[in-house]
Amino acid sequence: MFICSNANLMTLQNVGEVPRQLAYDFLQKQNGYVMLEVQNGDETYHITKEMLKNGKPYRNMILDLSDHVFEDAVRIGDAYGRFLVRDNSGNIVAVLERQYTYYDHPYQYEGGLDLEFLDQYDCVILYEVNEYSVELFQKALPLWSGRNIVLIGSLWHIFLPYLPKIEDKQIQVYDTMQDEILWQIMMQNKKPIHIRDFLPRNEGNSRVKDGLFCYDEIMTLTFMFACQITGGEKNPDKNFFLVNGYFKIEGIFGIWQKTFVLARYAKKKGYIPAFTIVSSTANMYSDGEGDDIWNKFFLQPEGYTIEEIMESRNLILSPNANILNVLRDILDSYAGAETQLEWRDGIFNQAVMAYCRQQREKFLADPAHTLGVLIRGTDYVKGNMPGHAIHANVEQVMEKIEEARRKWGVDYTYIYLATEDAGICEKMKEQYGNMLVCTDQGRFTTKENELLAQLHTEKKQGEGFRLGAEYLATLHLLSLCESLIASGGCNGVTEAIRENAGKYQHVFVFELGTNERPE
């Protein structure tokens, strides 16, 4: 997203070509300046830190103020960092600066807008001029069922004359939000929504009752189905919703958790959900630019193949499916428990199933006399991950294993261990010797607050499938054991229980509470 601020630049005249290192050193120290403007006779060009870091040539960074000025900046690209905005009088009135957001706006509207969420509110309050506030003002609010619009921020006075007028709405503009203004809004409207510029977090939902949301969340909900393309001529009467996302640190089940709720929401809305996750180049399961980290492991739901889907006429491209708690809860609530994905042929593809069979033959000789144990160390124990279950340590789990061997009445031949923690594996081997069985997957030791995915950044090309298949096979073998003990709740435990389908004779999962989420 491009945000908007007041212009602050240093102008140099008749200095010739400015050395790039000298310019970078100056801008690195900031000195309050966001860019340099160089005027050599009739030629004017600008220098930004981003331009220098990304190896871009110097260029004129002035954009004329219009209703599409933010789109113009997006089309040129964020590698240049910043743009100057010039009004009709030739004055530089603002600077556009790229800011990271989870949502990226495609400026495509063929699929239409979804106003159902915004229509719950009778007053929309947009804070500050930025790419998304202007887009909501122009594209969404003219279609919105409410009447009162409040704009907060002094730059709205500059931008409003260049934006299309909205009929049948009452628009108020204030430089800042004051207590008396807020009181007036509350008195005049039953249910106002405050839309502000901040990044969502893994947090609680306390701000929802106050009607406070970030631009990421509202843009995702409003433009969810807007980006429509044509893949071919198949299924002209069907609308497919292709789920994609930018996943960097998420494991397989973290990706499931985020993408499934988006897919269920789309299904509730009448679309056929499908998955093609090709934008997660930095993820541990990716083998490079454009690699599809979904279809290398999984099938498609609802009875269609990915080949047929991609040749269909109506394809809706999802926004970034890496959605956090507040938005995930909104989508989940709307979809409802009754809306679930249908996996008629199962979820795992043939390559994964073959790998699981191979590992089962190699490591699980006698499932009926094997106690399955999952111990999550690594990022769960040391990372203090907000919203995740607190896990028992290896000593607590070993005590429970001994209790189970006494009380469950089974003469276990093996203890099968599922863990990615090298230290835990070593302690269990010391305790149980040849009785302990575990697969040959890679295991690691993490530092304080270090995530497991960070340890895979140096993986070799082509290892994406191996990393994912190892993990899936480890859990598949766990699901075949006679009983289960787990150090705490996590997606891996949930998956093992799902695959086991009620066949475990005993299940014990430590319940030690949950790491608190920030409010």
Structure write-up:
This protein has 519 residues and is α/β, with parallel strands linked by helices. The protein folds into four domains: 2-98, CBS-domain; 118-222; 228-347; 352-509, 3-Layer(aba) Sandwich (Rossmann fold), CATH 3.40.50.11350. Helices cover 30% and strands 20% of the residues. It has 16 helices and 21 strands. The chain has helices at 20-28, 49-53, 69-76, 131-140, 156-159, 179-188, 215-222, 252-268, 306-310, 325-335, 350-363, 378-382, 394-407, 422-432, 464-479, 491-500, and strands at residues 2-5, 9-13, 35-40, 43-47, 62-64, 82-86, 92-98, 123-127, 148-152, 170-174, 192-196, 212-214, 228-229, 234-244, 272-275, 312-320, 370-374, 414-418, 436-437, 483-486, 507-509. It has a five-stranded parallel β-sheet with strand order 10-9-8-11-12. Helix 16 (491-500) links the parallel strand 20 and strand 21. It is elongated, with a radius of gyration of 27 Å. The two termini are 24 Å apart.
